[in-house]
Write a structure and sequence with these properties.
Length: about 550
């Protein structure tokens, strides 16, 4: 098979690219996805994500390395393996992040990536449920919605945040430069009662076009190179090895795990690493798989009284009521994102902008490894440091594309990250003790009142913390020797090869990464088309 562009991965970025590139009927695109179609009903019911994070076929079943900074724990590391990728299994929170994040990208030498320059691509993507305004737009592929329900406990948490001195923001995506501590209702990638994954929003409409071919259950083995030029992709499905040739470009959109792994299997990476695996070096690029970042989440949990929570609503006759509400009204807990509230606050005096994200849920998980809501009423705040300094890696372990690479986020390796986590946990304890919330609190259960010193908080974080699913930066964009792609997302020193996904972030965005990843792909699609037109003009000259 052959096309102008071959895209490896039908996750958030790959779906965007498939849609935007095939808007031109003269461009032919092949998309290769290792997973299957997004037919599981839990994908489309918003709250169904809880059932999918460890699904044996819809996720890759990854685990982070035991030496990732978590006292030897080998935590699950969910990534979507299905049309839509992780946008089909995530918590659906739509936050674009602080504009200063993108200004930082530009300051690192990436032209065109400042906050003002990327903002139009967020709007281009969006189909906002409300009226269009200076922040939100209508008519784009991606459905975005406000939180519809406002449970009593969440309203109390909002009031408690204001008692902490946090500004109430009507719109968490209307974030001017220099904004201080703030709190508000989250927005969701949801259209009506259903999840708005990238597959639903971007890929499904594009699949009606004759110039797009989507190949599922196709495991990419490597990029086929002719010297320093990418000419195709080798993949397998049903036990048969096949080839997809690209006359214009190969685009890797495998995410922060998949894209560096494919490059390494193709012989593009650190020669010492590749040589140790017996992979012939086709192009030396030491930064492939380095600079890996993720947000590290730790939860504070309290039992509550005299107020309804998700815990009671998730079972028995009350859950039947929730099913009816969802079926006939498109409302209720089955439409909820992973959180309804988010606060961005500064916990370290040296930070110029908020440095800690705190989500709030009027519910709590039962003790144990499984994600089941508790049988008694509870509330939870999950926090992460917005701009971690710790860096890890994604490195192939063997030449076999079926073998999971080494995934090491290297959590809490840096002093600043440790201080932020301790200060953040103390801050949440203070939040829960504000009058608006304290009247509901029975007792803090996690980490519990016995945890008081900085060392105890840090030990708790390493024992109980986990990923927020914000894998990024492993093929980072930049002009320096350890970067992988330039500011047009072209792999340094190669021709016809780009990476377009969260792996190109020079530094992880402060908040949730799905909206920024879709922005990256929207901007990347424009760059690909611009460069194609430039090649045509040069050929005609």
């Amino acid at each position: 098979m052959q096309a102008d562009y071959v895209i490896a991965g039908a996750g958030s970025a790959g779906c965007v690219l498939a849609n935007r590139l095939t808007e031109d009927p003269n461009i032919r695109v092949i998309v290769l996805e290792a997973g299957g179609r997004d037919t599981n009903p839990f994908i489309h019911i918003p709250a169904g994500y809880i059932m999918l994070l460890e699904h044996p076929t819809i996720t890759w079943g990854f685990k982070a390395d035991k030496d990732s900074g978590l006292n030897g724990r080998e935590i699950n590391y969910p990534r979507g393996r299905v049309l839509g990728g992780s946008s089909s299994i995530n918590g659906m929170i739509y936050i674009r992040s602080q504009p200063e994040d993108y200004d930082h990208w530009a300051q690192l030498g990436n032209r065109g990536w400042s906050g003002d320059e990327v903002f139009p691509y967020f709007r281009k993507a969006e189909n906002w449920e409300g009226p269009a305004d200076a922040v939100h737009s209508k008519g784009g592929p991606l459905f975005t919605s406000m939180t519809r329900d406002q449970p009593e406990l969440c309203v109390a948490a909002l009031q408690a945040g204001q008692e902490m001195g946090w500004e109430l923001r009507k719109d968490l995506n209307d974030l001017p430069h220099g904004l201080g501590d703030h709190i508000g209702w989250v927005q969701q990638t949801r259209g009506g009662r259903f999840r708005a994954s990238a597959a639903r929003s971007y890929l499904r409409p594009a699949m009606k076009r004759p110039n797009l071919e989507v190949v599922t259950n196709a495991l990419v083995h490597r990029v086929i190179l002719d010297g320093k030029r990418a000419v195709g992709v080798e993949f397998s499905r049903g036990g048969v090895t096949e080839r997809a040739d690209a006359t214009a470009e190969v685009i890797l959109s495998g995410g922060a795990i998949g894209s560096p792994h494919i490059l390494q299997l193709s012989g593009v990476g650190d020669p010492d690493h590749l040589g140790g695996l017996g992979i012939d070096v086709q192009h030396a690029l030491k930064g492939v798989g380095q600079n890996f970042q993720d947000h590290f989440l730790t939860r504070v949990v309290a039992d509550v009284k005299d107020v309804g929570t998700l815990n009671e609503r998730s079972r028995g006759i009350r859950f039947i009521g929730e099913l009816m509400k969802y079926t006939f009204q498109g409302r209720g807990m089955l439409t909820y994102a992973a959180s309804l509230l988010a606060a961005s606050v500064k916990v370290l005096p040296e930070s110029a902008t908020p440095d800690m994200q705190a989500l709030f849920s009027s519910g709590s998980f039962a003790p144990g490894p499984t994600r089941k809501l508790d049988t008694k009423p509870g509330m939870t705040s999950g926090i992460w440091q917005m701009r971690p300094e710790s860096r890890g890696h994604v490195l192939a372990r063997s030449r076999d594309p079926r073998d999971q690479p080494s995934i090491n986020p290297n959590y809490l390796a840096e002093d600043r990250d440790q201080r932020s986590m301790v200060a953040g946990l103390r801050l949440i304890r203070d939040w829960f003790n504000q009058p608006a919330l304290k009247r509901y609190v029975v007792a803090e259960t996690v980490p519990g009142p016995d945890v008081q010193s900085d060392d105890e908080f840090l030990h708790f974080a390493r024992e109980a913390g986990t990923t927020v699913f914000h894998a990024s930066c492993s093929c980072r964009m930049g002009p320096d020797p350890m970067s992988v792609v330039d500011d047009r997302l072209r792999v340094h020193g190669m021709e016809g090869l780009r990476v377009v996904d969260a792996s190109v972030m020079p530094a992880v965005t402060s908040t949730n990464t799905n909206a920024p990843t879709i922005m990256i792909a929207e901007k990347g699609a424009d760059m690909i088309r611009e460069d194609a037109r430039a090649r045509q003009r040069a050929a005609a000259a």
